[in-house]
Design goal:
heterodimer, A: 236 residues, Rossmann fold, 2 domains, 39% helix, B: 271 residues, mainly alpha, ABC transporter involved in vitamin B12 uptake, BtuC, 13 helices, globular
Chain lengths: 236, 271
Amino acid sequence: MSLLKVEDLTVQYDGSEALSGLSFTLEQGDYLCIVGENGSGKSTLIKALLGLKKPDGGSITYQGLAQSQIGYMPQQTDIQRDFPASVMEVVLTGCLKANGRRPFFSAKTKKLALENLEKTGAAQLAKKCYGELSGGQQQRVLMARALCSTEKLLILDEPVANLDPKATDELYALIDELNKKHGITVIMVSHDIRCAAMQAGKILHIDKTLVFFGTTNDYINSPEGRRFLSHSHHDI
Amino acid sequence: MDNIIKLLQMTFIQRALIVGVLVSLSAALLGVPLVLKRYSMIGDGLSHVGFCALSVAAVMNLAPLYFSIPVVVIAAFLLLRLSGKEKIKGDAATALITTSALAVGVIVTSFGSGITTDINSYMFGSILTMSRSDVRLSIVLSVAVLVLFVLFYNRLLAVTFDETFAKATGIKAQLYNMLLALLTALTIVLGMRMMGTLLISGLVVFPALTAMRVFKRFRSVMICSACVSVVCFVVGIIASYVFSTPAGASVVAADLLAFLLFWAIGAVKYR
């Protein structure tokens, strides 16, 4: 069953087209990696998928899932790095939808937060101060927060940016586990193209419009894929 | 002690204390998200706009509060919005608005009475200026701030920590930003005549930073910030009476001492 259907999507920024005529579909349980150069419209696509930017043409349809039920993990901001909040407080900000209109968190909501911290292997950090964690630990906490607002779809924006190689490997392993073991569909934007491509089952390569969409194996053997992979090899 | 009791019986002192405590409380609570969102200078910008508005009101014989409140509220909306994706960045926008408001205010004042004592009391505050309507407005303001922070605490934390994520989960982040702007503007307008245009932003910035030296959880930072702010205000006012120093400056000096104390405690605790 397709979870997400993007048809002929066009998004404009300040009058110029950041994305045009983009179409692809995603099945439940897919692991998609979005690749492309800087300014190719990756961030715009994410914003559109989350409903933060209205499409100027085409459509985005979710099946069995509301747009606000996507688990989103944005890139870290400067504000967050030394933010005075406990890990639990941070994860709970992902549970606001689940908690409904209540002004305070119910016991059930707190349980949900703890369960997701366990899923990301960060349960022992619950009482720690978020600002004092390592980069990899912070990402696990943000992943738990994202999981609190979804059961089906995670959108990860550059999840391994600024992480050391060990933390990067661990985070990829975690994403893989969430995808395979818990059946959560994953959409990931990554600069770390070669690693990301090894992880993901499908690749969406965009450059303001569709360049390639298909399985990772097909991508590696396609002319676009070969060019992009060898090109980014020199970059790194 | 007798002197202090006698002091507390004077109407202008009672008013100043009520308004001061409530404004300190509101400023301290609003200060935490503002400082964390890197809007520390907004209090300074708004108080200068308030100064400009008060000068215009004085010269044109308008009711000072009813004229300055809408002006400062509009400035607050502009400042919080200007800091987004606009061409002029937040700190530069604040600097522009601060200095131009000050310039216009000083020129307008010179057209009016032209007496420098007016400017002096605007700049450094005067404890004698609080009226009955200030007392009423400060009660309304502090109730609004408390309601916002108690009932919408979790949403405010979400929006402060990560606005993009909050928006993606369906929280109306812009609404909370506008509420923050509105309440900050009211706090500044109410507090600035007592604390002074140049000193009022201390009430917004100091308590939050002081609390963050020692506490590492959002809830504790909030509570500590509010307590520190109120205590420093009362201590500052008493000190200003005992040592015959200007009220606003004494309060900020008390805030500074508290900051240094908490900084030392934090340094020892997190060594």
